[in-house]
Specification:
- The chain folds into 2 domains: 141 residues, Orthogonal Bundle (N-utilizing Substance Protein B Homolog, Chain A); 198 residues, 3-Layer(aba) Sandwich (Rossmann fold).
- 44% of the residues lie in helices and 15% in strands.
- A 7-stranded mixed sheet has the order 7-6-5-8-9-11-10, sandwiched between helices. The chain has a 4-stranded antiparallel sheet with strand order 2-3-1-4, covered by helices on one side.
- Strand 5, helix 13 and strand 6 form a beta-alpha-beta unit.
- Helix 1 packs across helix 3 and helix 1 packs across helix 5.
- The radius of gyration is 24 Å and the shape is globular.
- The termini are far apart.
Length: 437
């Protein structure tokens, strides 16, 4: 922990917390968990500042690493390295619109290093490194621009995969993933209307626009506690692309009492949307028992009920509650585990946590789940295959494989691949729909 003499509201303190989180991410911990560990017992303002710094550092990790390699030729302590990476991420911003002056960033980064006994000896080095970057910025940035990982801030294998899949769009897609996604709301029409919700937002000083049947995009993100009616279930936070799932599952005229399985359901966003739309019986299945409470919390807030089960979607006989009861489902939403490459603008750590070898393993897992769930679907029923990925091996190639191996599967119309764009309304998603004959 930092020395008590360092003011907790200072940029230096926030840099220390962000650097601790960044170190954990580089060791394989997801950024939200890393931040939670790094900011335990911190005030909300400190957590917010640390989060902003950490997310910025992760988004600029490729370029910051390349810069540090040019600026320092000796090995650095991990904490010194990560404070410098956080500072370099800040200094790469256009000075005109930067959150902090260049002097402040350098001064506070040096303070952050000097305030800890184990790193204090490196304060002179840190000062020299950051000041050299400011003096030679243009030349240094030109040098690292020749390195794909530094230019795009993605691992090389990720860049190559996207470029091969989308030869005419790959640069736009990578740039979109490096932007910040909008805050989009899903209105619960059992509790209010889109027009009434938008009026409530306007009254609260929050500008919004309608971008879907029940979707409102906020001009500026806000903490969910500030959203009018959030605690009472008027509205949920859900990306516009994710809001396509429930209507695709239920169709235009859902039958009351229809049996619907939401496989891989946590945190319950799509489960809630299904129940908001129609009086159907939803089984919400989740394999990770630590995430199941989130499903209950969301359902309680929305005033809705579902049959929540714990278990592997690929092994129906082992689901909690005695396993699958043998009664076929009319609809199945298979929102399967995937690379999450389509939501990288919201979760920038994904690009650094994923490994190329992970994709092949995920493809096999997706196939196992699909085949198992197909056996629980009624004849005439429909299965929707969904991912939040942009990698074809998890998406269209999977749909084509499924058509080949399941002779009783008829492919129906679905949105297919949705790609994110800079400033676009939705993340990257994929949807395929099959009927059992």
């Amino acid at each position: 922990m930092p020395q008590p003499s360092l003011p907790t509201e200072s940029l230096a303190y926030a840099l220390q917390r962000a650097a601790q989180a960044l170190e954990s991410v580089q060791k394989g911990t997801a950024l939200p968990q890393a931040l939670a560990q790094a900011t335990t017992q911190c005030a909300p303002t400190v957590r917010a500042a640390s989060q902003d710094l950490a997310y910025r550092a992760v988004r600029r990790l490729g370029s910051s690493r390349a810069l540090l390699a040019l600026l320092v030729k000796t090995a650095l302590q991990a904490r010194v390295r990560d404070i410098l990476l956080c500072a370099l991420a800040l200094l790469q911003d256009d000075p005109e619109g930067a959150a902090y002056t260049e002097f402040t960033v350098v001064d506070q980064a040096v303070e952050a290093i000097a305030a800890q006994r184990r790193t204090a000896a490196a304060k002179g080095l840190a000062n020299a490194v950051l000041r050299r970057f400011l003096r030679e910025r243009q030349g240094l940035m030109a040098q690292i621009a020749k390195q794909p990982e530094a230019r795009w801030n993605y691992p090389v294998w990720w860049i190559d995969t996207v470029r091969e899949a989308y030869p005419d769009q790959w640069e736009t897609l990578l740039a979109a993933g490096d932007s910040r996604g909008p805050m989009t709301l899903r209105v619960n029409t059992r509790r209010t209307s889109v027009a009434a919700m938008q009026a409530s937002l306007t009254q609260a000083g929050m500008a919004s626009e309608v971008i879907g049947p029940v979707a409102l995009r906020l001009a500026h993100a806000v903490p969910v506690e500030r959203l009018p009616g959030f605690a009472d279930g008027w509205v949920s936070v859900q990306d516009a692309g994710a809001q396509l799932a429930a209507p695709l599952v239920l169709g235009e005229h859902p039958r009351a009492g229809m049996r619907v399985l939401d496989a891989c359901a946590a945190p319950g966003g799509k489960t809630g949307h299904l129940l908001e739309m129609a009086d159907v019986h939803v089984t919400a299945l989740e394999s990770d028992r630590t995430r199941v409470p989130r499903i209950y919390e969301n359902l309680e807030r929305l005033g809705l009920e579902a049959d929540v089960r714990i278990g592997d979607a690929g092994n129906p006989s082992k689901w909690s509650g005695g396993g699958w009861d043998g009664v076929p489902f009319d609809r199945i939403l298979a929102d399967v585990p995937c690379s999450a490459a389509g939501i990288v603008r919201r979760h920038p750590d994904i690009r650094w946590l994923r490994r190329e070898a992970d994709i092949a393993a995920l493809v096999e897992e997706q196939r196992r789940i699909l085949l198992a769930l197909w056996g629980t679907l009624a004849v005439g029923g429909e299965l929707i295959y969904a991912t939040c990925s942009v990698f074809p091996s998890e998406n269209e190639q999977q749909a084509q494989w499924f058509e080949r191996v399941c002779s009783d599967a008829v492919r129906l119309d679905a949105p297919g691949q949705l790609l994110m764009t800079p400033g676009g309304a939705h993340d990257g998603f994929y949807y395929a729909r099959f009927q059992k004959r």
